[in-house]
Amino acid sequence: MQTLNLAKELYSETEAAAALNISIAELHELLDDHIFTDGTQRPERVEFRYSDLVLLGFWSHSAPVNKVVRMPRRA
Q: What is the dihedral of CA 19, 4, 31, 60, to 10 degrees?
């Protein structure tokens, strides 16, 4: 993850994806896989705090664990 200016309070999707060195589509996939799992739709516009980027960065660079059974998405 790139070093960010910590004085900034909110980051757009474009800024977040750039900071994480991933595409917007990959960012949306992370959000859909880890955040919006209760059947609610991802909002059209999402803003992030630095702490959100830290967690998203962890998820984007962690290897899948085969010992964990993922619950199916709610439809």
A: 60
Residue 13's SS3 state is helix
Q: Tokens 């917007």 identify what position? A: 24
DSSP state, residue 48: B
- Note the CATH number of domain 1-75: 1.10.1660
Percentage with pLDDT > 90 across the chain: 45
Q: Is 11 helix (H, G, I), strand (E, B) or coil?
A: strand
All residues at 6 or more sequence positions from 45 whose CB lies less than 8 Å from its CB, including other chains: 13
30-46, pLDDT tens digit by residue? 999 888 888 888 998 99
Tell me the residue length of the chain: 75
The dihedral over CA atoms of 54, 62, 21, 24, expressed in degrees to the nearest 10, equals: -90
